[in-house]
């Protein structure tokens, strides 16, 4: 049996006194698009910080394609492509310079990947702006560059932390379509954190995170059935309300 | 990861730091104007006030301008080291620090690359400053320029590591301004950059002791001796020792399991 793209077992975390994540467990298989749904402050970004090893969990285990993040950190991280919530492009560098920097951080030869870099920029219709500074791009364009950059080294697991936040509806759709396509065609696992229920499709795997706890985990359709609701929004409201009561 | 991949990572980070520096013109000119103001104006004004006797590594009486040039070169490294840590705080807030940290290279190596890149950019500024000082009649032997490189490199790494250590403990950009005032200015003035230590000893033995323990004094002296083809072993060992100490502290600060980052950040 092949290893899960991502497996979390009993992950907990607290900032000094405040418990942010409490016994979080779920798995994500290769080729799956998994939405981590939760309101702001639910613990999504903290969970991402743990999976990317910016923080270390106090309890539990995180495996990425079978590599234990704690004991096989570098092998585990090598499987990852990450789009952080905060913008991480250098505004004063060109698109190509940003992509080259990413290659260097992965130990890749940017000369060999030049054609590929041009191709991915062409795919997002920014091929003719490769030498423009990032500062000259719109918010949506910048996010799309971040996305292709995260996929440039062909990771097997993509983590995207609210990548569409602050974008207009067209940019959001374009980015979502782009990621879903890569997930489908390349078989990569995707963990997509969001607070926007309309980004969830019924066939997606869904993890509902609320106050640091996983309230539901399964396909969106299955969760809707279990909660006796007709939409993801209703299911989410039903779960979070019953948790609060 | 192979040796070539490690090298690619170092070159990539160095290239990025260089491009960022070149694109920030005000930073470029600021870095150059600061020591030149000291050299052209301050030194000219104080030349007649401060007499400098013959002290090693100088073999003859020298003008005050010549005395302060190594100190000003070290000042460039000091400001640059702190500015580079400012960029770490800024990077961390902007998120690109996260990008660096999720690279599959060991974290100590990534921080070291960042440190080396920042130091090389600073040394380029120092040589530009020394070239201008040459036309101001501050002309150490030509071999001194070559021999100064390792001294500048070690000093730059040491000051950059101190900046890195500070950046791991600073929560926000606002706090950084305070650290600049509490670190840069005391380090610079309580050193042999502007006046020989024997002159300070004449005024206050206590202050003299502080200056002697200031690692920046030793960065200045290491640079001064190297520029004149000599080595000050005491300065060398203090600089290397301080470098190791600051670097260990910075690596601790940026270690996710033990460090300060976790305690400082709120979660969403």
Automatic annotation (TrEMBL), chain A:
Known Gene3D superfamilies for this protein?
Answer: P-loop containing nucleotide triphosphate hydrolases (3.40.50.300)
| NCBIfam families assigned | PQQ_ABC_ATP (TIGR03864)
Kindly indicate whether the keyword Nucleotide-binding belongs to this entry.
yes
* Keyword tags: ATP-binding, Nucleotide-binding
Mind listing the GO molecular function terms for this protein? Answer: ATP binding; ATP hydrolysis activity
Domain ABC transporter: where?
6-236
- Could you identify this protein by its name? ABC transporter ATP-binding protein
Source organism of this protein record: Candidatus Thiodiazotropha endolucinida
Source taxonomy lineage? Answer: Bacteria, Pseudomonadati, Pseudomonadota, Gammaproteobacteria, Chromatiales
Q: Entry's InterPro entries? A: AAA+_ATPase, ABC_transporter-like_ATP-bd, ABC_transporter-like_CS, ABC_transprt_ATP-bd_su_PQQ, P-loop_NTPase
* Entry keyword annotation includes Lipid metabolism: no
TrEMBL record, chain B:
Q: What domain of life does the UniProt record list for this protein's source?
A: Bacteria
Q: What is its main location?
A: membrane
Q: Where in the cell is it found?
A: Cell inner membrane; Membrane
Q: Specify the protein's topology with respect to the membrane.
A: Multi-pass membrane protein
Q: Where is the ABC transmembrane type-2 domain?
A: 26-257
Give GO cellular component annotations, separated by semicolons.
ATP-binding cassette (ABC) transporter complex
Q: Name one Pfam family in it.
A: ABC2_membrane
Molecular function terms from GO: ABC-type transporter activity
| Record carries keyword Cell membrane | yes
Which InterPro entries does this chain map to?
Answer: ABC2_TM, ABC2_TM_bact-type, ABC_2_transport, Alc_ABC_transptr_permease, T7SS_ABC-Transporter
> Where does the signal peptide begin and end?
none
**Keyword Cell membrane set for record:** yes
Keyword terms of this UniProt record: Cell membrane, Membrane, Transmembrane, Transmembrane helix, Transport
Q: Which residues cross the membrane?
A: 36-55, 67-90, 111-136, 142-166, 178-198, 231-254
PANTHER family attached to this UniProt entry: TRANSPORT PERMEASE PROTEIN, TRANSPORT PERMEASE YVFS-RELATED
NCBIfam families recorded = phenyl_ABC_PedC (TIGR03861)
Q: Which family does it belong to?
A: Belongs to the ABC-2 integral membrane protein family.
List the protein's name. Answer: Transport permease protein
């Amino acid at each position: 049996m092949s290893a899960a793209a991502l497996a979390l077992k009993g992950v907990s975390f607290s900032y000094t006194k405040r418990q942010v994540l409490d016994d979080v467990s779920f798995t994500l298989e290769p080729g799956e698009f998994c939405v981590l749904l939760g309101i702001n402050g639910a613990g999504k970004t903290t969970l991402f910080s743990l999976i990317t090893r910016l923080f270390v969990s106090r309890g539990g285990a995180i495996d990425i394609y079978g590599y234990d993040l704690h004991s096989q950190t570098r092998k585990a991280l090598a499987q990852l492509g990450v789009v952080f919530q905060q913008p991480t492009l250098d505004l004063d560098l060109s698109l190509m310079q940003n992509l080259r920097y990413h290659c260097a951080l992965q130990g890749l030869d940017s000369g060999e990947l030049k054609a590929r870099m041009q191709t991915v920029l062409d795919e997002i219709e920014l091929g003719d702006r490769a030498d423009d500074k990032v500062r000259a791009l719109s918010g949506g364009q910048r996010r799309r560059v971040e996305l292709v950059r995260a996929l440039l080294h062909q990771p097997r697991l993509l983590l995207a932390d609210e990548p569409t936040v602050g974008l207009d509806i067209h940019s959001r759709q374009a980015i979502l379509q782009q990621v879903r396509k890569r997930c489908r065609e390349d078989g990569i696992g995707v963990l997509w954190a969001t607070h926007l229920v309309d980004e969830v499709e019924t066939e997606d795997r869904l993890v509902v995170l609320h106050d640091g706890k996983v309230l539901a985990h399964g396909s969106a359709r299955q969760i809707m059935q279990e909660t006796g609701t007709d939409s993801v929004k209703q299911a989410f409201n039903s779960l979070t309300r019953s948790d609060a009561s | 990861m192979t040796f070539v991949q490690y090298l690619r990572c170092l070159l990539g980070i160095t290239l990025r730091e260089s491009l960022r520096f070149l694109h920030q013109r005000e930073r470029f000119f600021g870095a150059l104007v600061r020591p030149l103001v000291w050299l052209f104006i301050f030194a000219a004004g104080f030349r007649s006030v401060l007499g400098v006797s013959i002290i090693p590594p100088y073999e003859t009486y020298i003008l005050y301008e010549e005395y302060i040039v190594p100190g000003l070169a070290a000042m460039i490294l000091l400001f640059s080291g702190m500015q580079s840590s400012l960029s770490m705080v800024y990077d961390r807030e902007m998120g690109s620090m996260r990008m660096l940290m999720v690279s599959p290279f060991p974290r100590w190596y990534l921080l070291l690359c960042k440190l080396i890149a920042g130091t090389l950019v600073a040394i380029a500024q120092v040589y530009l400053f020394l070239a201008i000082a040459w036309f101001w009649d501050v002309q150490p032997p030509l071999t001194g320029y070559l021999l100064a490189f390792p001294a500048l490199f070690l000093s730059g790494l040491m000051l950059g590591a101190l900046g890195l250590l500070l950046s791991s403990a600073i929560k926000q950009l606002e706090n950084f301004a305070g650290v600049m005032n509490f670190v840069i200015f005391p380090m610079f003035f309580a050193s042999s950059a502007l006046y020989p230590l024997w002159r300070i000893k004449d005024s206050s033995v206590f202050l003299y002791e502080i200056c002697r323990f200031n690692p920046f004094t030793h960065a200045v002296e290491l640079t001064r001796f190297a520029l004149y083809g000599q080595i000050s072993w005491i300065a060398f060992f203090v600089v290397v020792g301080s470098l190791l100490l600051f670097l260990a502290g910075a690596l601790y600060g940026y270690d996710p399991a033990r460090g300060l980052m976790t305690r400082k950040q709120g979660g969403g």
